[in-house]
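User: My instructor asked us to take a sequence, write out its structure as tokens, and then describe one feature of it. I'm not sure where to start. Here is the sequence I was given:
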Amino acid sequence: MADKNQIHSLSQKYFTKVVGIRQHLHKHPELSFNEFKTSEYIQKQLSEAGIAFTTGHVKTGIIALIKGKNPEKKTLLLRADMDALPILEKNDVAYKSCNEGVMHACGHDVHSATMLGAAFILNDLRDQIEGTVKIMFQPGEEVLPGGASLMIGEGVLENPKVDKAIALHVFPSMETGKVGFKSGMYMASTDELYLTVTGKGGHAAMPADYINPLIVASEILLEINKRFMIPGALTGTNGESVPTVVAFGKIEGKGATNVIPDKVEIEGTFRTMNEAWRDEVHATLKEIAKTVALKNNATAELRIERGYPFLVNDEKFTVASIASAQEYLGKENVEELPLRMTAEDFAYITQKVPSCFFRLGTGNKSKGITSGVHTATFDIDERALETGMGLVVYLSLKELS
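Assistant: Let's start with the prediction itself. The structure tokens for your sequence are:
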């Protein structure tokens, strides 16, 4: 039986250590699939705590095991990601990134430190665990194809077979001490769009001699805008409302004031929450591009890089986790979250086993800690580490009891 007072006490005991771990990771960030020193540091922490692990999963990934009583009864997976972003940090703190142009601006340092803290506590309480806790430190959450999918391919959900999974993510717009949950569908699938429009280049003063791909590309974007870039949900294949985002953030046509280029390249994103609708939109986008280009005697090729699936929280498991979080933190500190059109590669795991992905409040308005993720001034109120590791332990013990 999970004793919340004991867990609170152990979270306080390990708090300073975990803050130090987080600050070390923040100071030494590494980009996706290159988390070699990060992995070595996490391995060192696990070794010093006497926690068994294996390494070399997708090069830098780690799988730790904490076996309790009856270790074959049930296995719970805890997941942390390790990679940073290509952002130049602007914070003036002692633990500021020393790798110029690389920063833990999405909180993966927090995720790894929190799960290490949870591992320390669960290892101390392993005689209370009915089953096994498997902790996954994964590379490359930020870029396709996603480290979670690759670790699944290498068998992270087997040997021992995972029954359920938990992960968390920093939430800077929520005050530290609070957490948020959403049962059922929570986050969108994500696909990358690469559109190339080819016309015929020439001298800008001689319009009869060229086919301007910039104009054709603009018309394609306007047609897509009419169909998909509208507020709210769109009607999917089966007539239901499906949250949908199609957005383009980059356009490049290497001409000049008096030079019409041969081609234009455009990049964007597509996000939704229904797989049949996802496939239908892929086909529609390609048809729009082809039709508009053909009408203008140009060509258009749309390459779609299929990304993460939608993230779905198992309703029964999440409802139980919400009740446990309320027990541990108090009802006033547990919030219900809305759908998000952002994406997360933990979605691959939620598609395989019943999972719960929750948000950890890391903001503090009174201290000016309000910057969002993926910004150069992102930081956290480090008291969130105590909240996070304690709650992960409480949820784990409630599940494995």
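For the description part of your assignment, you could build on this observation: The chain has two domains: 4-187+310-399, 189-306. Try explaining in your own words what that tells you about the chain.
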